[in-house]
Amino acid sequence: MFWKAITLAALFARDTSAQVQGSADFLRFGCSQLVIERIDPLVTPGANPSPHTHQIMDPNTIDPPTQSTCTSCSYTEDTSNYWTASIYFQSPENGTFKRVPQMANGRLNGTLLEQEGGLTVYYMRPFSGSNKKTTVPKPGFRMLAGDPTLRSKTGNFANICHRCLQARDRVMGGSGAPCDSSDTASFPTKMCPGGIRATIIFPSCWDGKNLDSPDHKSHVAYAAGSALAGDKCPSTHPVRIPQVMYEIMFDTTQFNNPDYWKNGKQPFVYSFGDPTGYGAHADYLFGWKGDALQRAMDALGTSCASEDCTKVLKIQDGKDAIGCTKAQLAKEDVGSSTCYVTQIVKDESGCKVV
């Protein structure tokens, strides 16, 4: 286990050497923010508005490759849907809310990805074992990671976490394996000089039959023993798929006022009414065109590695990715002093969590 932990940390270190990039077991790229609104076709299909806000990367459609006219991701073949919950600052003084802005993550060479907010997406193959083959799921595949009802560590096994960034980590998001011992399932309980990085790790094993399930989880599974995939899958879910991981960078620095962090309390709440952070979750809807993702996964370690897959995939200019946006379907102010979040109500004194 000790050797495995070191190996994972080495693979995920922000190392710019050709050796690391050439042998990388993952595809890594940025997706700009498409829209912020209360729409979630995975968990609450057809609901307008949805119970809580999401930050959505890429068009909100049932069949993205055929219905999308653009993509906010770096690679033009990727029109997948990536949903993550918003974070709000709740004022300890009057209980009102202000949405925490997102910031771009960094490339391995130390420069910022060209994106407006959004997230960094990983597609990973097994980090251990001899069989590195992954099978890309079929069109219409979707899944959910996390549980929005969680309010304690029970049920959380290091597949979702928060990292309190130092000022030097603001661009690159820190180093080391995701969700390691320095990260927390809950929100950090201290001010973070470089902001907060949220990490969502999705399951890596599929039953090979169902594109979805009633809970959006039963048709997929994590490999035994770790959120990060090895080359073994349970017999119930024998198909090893590329493991999807999100990194979302939240710029919490404007709220680094000691008055907001008194008595061990922190001032943030997820948009579904969770002031703990344990309920963090994310949705995924597969939307790659043709066999593009399969070709990229098969080429990892040779003509495709980490952020350099231009021999296999087509990359677009950053300004084009940022320019791919959509209007809100659930039209409302998602910025501040609003009460549209599950378990948040409004009375004469303002907004409050109940």
TrEMBL record:
Residues 40-288 form the DUF1996 domain. It holds the Pfam family DUF1996. InterPro entries: DUF1996. The keyword Signal applies. The keyword Hydrolase does not apply. It comes from the Eukaryota. Keywords: Signal. Residues 1-18 form the signal peptide. This is DUF1996 domain-containing protein.
